[in-house]
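Q: I have 251 residues here and want to know how they pack in 3D. Can you give me a structure?
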Amino acid sequence: MEITVITVSLLLGTGLIAGIINTLAGGGSNLTLPALMIMGLPADMANATNRVGVIMHTMVTLRSFSRHGKLPMQGAKGLFVPVLVGGVIGSILASYLPATLLKPILLTTMISMSLVMLFRPGMVFPSAHEQPQALVRWSKSWWLLLLSGVYGGFVQAGVGFVLIAVIAGGLRYDLVRTNALKILCTGTFTSVALALFIWRGQVVWVPGLILASATMAGGLIGVRLALNISPLVMKWVLFVMTVVVSIAALL
């Protein structure tokens, strides 16, 4: 693929927006994955290259959440094993599936997750009056976290909303702490997936690092916005942009 002013601008713009969205809730890869495919990367390499920005975004936003006292590490202890095992399974599937099969799966998954987010918000956002539960008190969460890890290792796009549904809907954390734990889980399975993709030679580093610089900046902005932005506005913006760029990637 050729790196031009236009492609760099596309990566920086979508990366910045994706970084903000991923911090506030999730779904930023709905923008960055189609952007990478529009630039000419096959679906498997776009999926792999996208993880560079995801892992860098995870590092800067976790540090920021922790500095503000919003990362409940006590509640995070039981999350690592299921998402890590799931991430290994999902990343192997993503790495070895043919690119011609992976592209329609990626795009269908992204649009489906956006529709769920818009029209079934109760599956994503928890009640503000419920107290957090330990993972051992809701064993079903372990299996849901495992499936979330599989999904995240496989496709990444929209996994934030899957994790929010499990962590907030199942374990009853408030949305800010849920987002921090969600990013921690994302970093766990993304590190495994990225290592596999690097070993398989599927990461294209120049666009990956350009994208990463923008997603890190967006992540820091997103932490500051986390308590103030309207979720409804963000859901509609994300849905419209997802449909537009996904259709463009299919053409």
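Q: Anything worth noting?
A: The chain has one domain: 5-250. The radius of gyration is 17 Å.
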